[in-house]
Every structure is written in C-alpha cells, then in structure tokens.
Write a structure and sequence with these properties.
With 399 residues, the chain is α+β, with helices and mostly antiparallel strands. It folds into two domains: 241 residues, FAD/NAD(P)-binding domain (3-Layer(bba) Sandwich); 152 residues, no CATH class. Helices cover 34% and strands 25% of the residues. It contains 13 helices and 22 strands. The strands form six sheets. A seven-stranded antiparallel beta sheet has the order 17-16-13-14-15-12-18. A hairpin with a 5-residue loop joins strand 13 and strand 14. The radius of gyration is 25 Å and the shape is elongated. The model has no long low-confidence stretch (mean pLDDT 95).
Length: 399
C-alpha cells in the first residue's frame, strides 16, 4: 500500500508516523514544496514549541476554536491533549505545563519536538521528498496521481496536510473540493496614536476591548507594541472577528476600558472620592487600576492634567475626560500585523466536505485532510497544533 502525505509540517509528519506504526508494511512518502521541514514547529512559542495545552476535557478545549470547535468535540474525546502528552512521553519527550496551561517540551526547545519526529521518520523508514511542488492531483479508479514539475507519483491513499497554503487550496478547488475563502486570523492591530507612541513594551494585566459597530468584545492582557496593540485581548478579537474585520479591510475603531470591568459612573465616583479625601495627592504619582506609570502619566497629559496638579484641584471637565479615557478610550485601527511569525488563517477546505470520524473527503475516496488546510483555527495556547495531532491520529486509525 502506497501512501503520500503532502506537507512537511506538524500535521503531515504526525499523521505519517502514526500510519507507519499501525501499518509497518506500507510505503509512506512525505512530500514538501520547500527544503524546510517542520518550520512552524521550529518558531512556535518563541522557539520553545507550544506543543499542546494543559486543559484535558473536550468541553474545555472547544471554546478556543472560533472555526470548527463544536464539530471537534468527539475528536478531542478520542485523542486529546492528555493523549498527545502521553504520545510524546512514550517517545522520550517530557513536557511541562505553565500557569496559563500552555504545554512545552521540558527542554523548552522546539528542536526537541523536531528531533523526535525525525527520529520516528527514520525508525519507520518514511521517505521524505523536499522541493516537491505539487502541480496537480488526479484520481483514477484505483489510485491518486500526484504530479510535480520533475516527477509523477502514484498513491493508494493521499493525505493533504499543507497548512495555510493558497497554492494547495487552489489545487484542491480545481480537484473539486469546496474552499472557504481564507483570511488572516491571530493578528495585532496597527495603531498610530499619541497616547501610545514610544511606549512599546508596556503591558496591562486585564483590560476590556470592544470593536465599535460589532458584537466583538474581549477581556485580557494588553501589550503596546512598536506598531500598535497586541496581547491576548487583541489576539482573541482578531481570531473571533477574522472574517468580519477582513470585510472592513482592517480599518475600524476600538474602545478600551483600562479598568477591566468598572463602569464610567464607578470610575467617576472613585475620582471624586479621591478629590475629597486626598486633595493634596498628585495624581501623577499614584496610578489607578494598576495602570503602568508611564502610560498613566501619558494619559494625564492627554487629558490636560498637569503632573503637579493635586487631586483637590481637578475640574469637572478634567474628571470627565479622564473617566472617558479610562473606560472608553477610542482608538483608530488602520491595518494589521502578523503575530510574531505564527501566521494562522481562518478558512480552507469546508468541514462539510470531510467525514470528521475519519477525516476522509466525503466525495473523494482515499483522500484525507488534516491540519490548517481545513477550515479550522484556534486561539494561541497550543490549540492549533492539537487540532493537527487529533486529526492525524484519527486518520492513522481509520485509513
């Protein structure tokens, strides 16, 4: 039996390895269009490889998938995060879970995962062909024909694990599969604003961010970057709003509540209490709501509140302006940037095209799909990789 896996990334390697373990007499080949293997594994988690997540219940995992979540419930029950950690441990890779539930190899080095996969490939005599750019796929009565510019291969079983690849999606569309138009997910917001200029690196513990004119609203840590804003609150918004923000061409407005969940009335009351109880206190020396001091000073300056002004001399106009900035700071977003190097897309092969119990294409026998080539994407935290591991496992057990 000949199996070809198209894609030399996480989903491709994991699927091929598990098929080889279950069917040691099969001939398995991985083809990759570049000369780089497992490149996304290499850069994941800042080079440490956020290989999965510490949450183990399917019900806990599903909410982290803007696309595909509910349909993956059964998948995670069969092969979830705990099973992946056991799989790695069995092959000599120990893992550790951090406070935010992200799971990394104990070495904190992505090369550990890469070495593990490559070792398994050698152990099971899996063939790897690099610089193999697929030009066309054709199904015959008995097999699949995979053609590149230099050679043509025949496969009894074909697995597509190309990740976020426009070329692959075009080829699959020509083959007859329906594709949901891919758009970026997990991106940062480009903002040029005097309030955050030259303050890159300043982080906030917990803020609320709302996209004006939509129902998109998230809370979480926020980070000022060289280009604008990032951090979990922004990344969650970009993931859940991927398609809607694409239609806006990434030009929109956001409202930020730096207090987290306090209302304008509550903040105004707190400022008036401070004004009456500590009239001599200089606001610039006492940031409120755990706001970083440099940003607090910038905010006071923006509200035309002098650094030496005591609380007792705050005017009603100044208080109202500060309340507005703390609870409904309005910022113009004009564009996006990729989050680090971890490019994720929303879109791909429509899930209704695939039998999620086997990940075989419903209309094309012996064609299987795994990973980000499908219309599945998740938030950061090891969830995108886990979708690859789970689908790869299901394929290997059912092929």
């Amino acid at each position: 039996m000949k199996v070809i896996v198209i894609g030399g990334g996480a989903a491709g390697f994991f699927t091929a390895i598990n098929i080889a373990e279950k069917h040691p007499d099969w001939q398995i080949t991985i083809v990759e269009k570049t000369n780089k293997l497992l490149s996304k594994v290499k850069i994941s988690g800042g080079g440490r490889c956020n290989v999965t997540n510490g949450r183990t219940a399917a019900s806990e995992l599903v909410p982290f998938y803007p696309r595909g979540g509910k349909k993956l419930y059964g998948l995670f029950q069969e092969f979830g995060t705990a099973e992946m950690r056991k799989w790695l441990s069995k092959r000599g890779v120990n893992t550790h879970e951090e406070a935010d539930h992200r799971v990394f190899p104990a070495t904190n080095d992505s090369q550990t995962i890469i070495d593990c996969f490559l070792q398994q490939v050698r152990k099971h005599s899996i063939t790897i062909k690099t610089n193999f750019s697929v030009l066309s796929l054709r199904q015959t009565e008995e097999s699949w024909i995979v053609r590149s510019s230099s050679e043509t291969l025949q496969a009894d079983k074909l697995i597509i694990a190309t990740g976020s690849s426009p070329v692959a999606w075009k080829t699959l569309q020509q083959t007859g599969l329906e594709i949901v138009e891919p758009v970026p997910s997990l991106f940062t917001f480009n903002i040029k604003d005097a309030r955050i200029k030259d303050l890159m690196g300043i982080a906030f513990g917990n803020v609320s961010v709302k996209i004006v004119g939509t129902k998109l609203d998230e809370t979480g840590p926020l980070l000022i970057t060289h280009w604008g804003l990032s951090g979990p609150a922004i990344l969650k918004l970009s993931a859940w709003g991927a398609r809607e923000l694409s239609t806006k061409n990434y030009h929109f407005q956001i409202l930020i509540n730096y207090t987290g969940d306090q209302s304008a009335d509550q903040v105004r009351s707190n400022l008036n209490d401070l004004k009456s109880s500590n009239p001599k206190r200089k606001l610039s020396n006492h940031p409120m709501y755990d706001i970083p001091k440099r940003f607090w000073e910038r905010l006071l300056e923006y509200c035309e509140i002098g650094s030496d002004l005591p609380a007792g001399e705050l005017s009603k106009k100044q208080i109202n302006k500060l309340v507005e900035e703390l609870t409904q700071g309005l910022y113009d977003v004009k564009g996006k940037s990729t989050f680090k190097e971890e490019f994720v897309t929303s879109g791909g092969v429509k899930l209704s095209e695939v039998d999620l119990k086997t990940f075989e294409a419903k209309r094309f026998k012996n064609l299987y799909l795994a990973g980000e080539v499908l219309d599945i994407d998740a938030l950061t935290g090891g969830f995108n990789f886990q979708a690859c591991w789970s689908a790869g496992w299901i394929i290997s057990q059912n092929i």
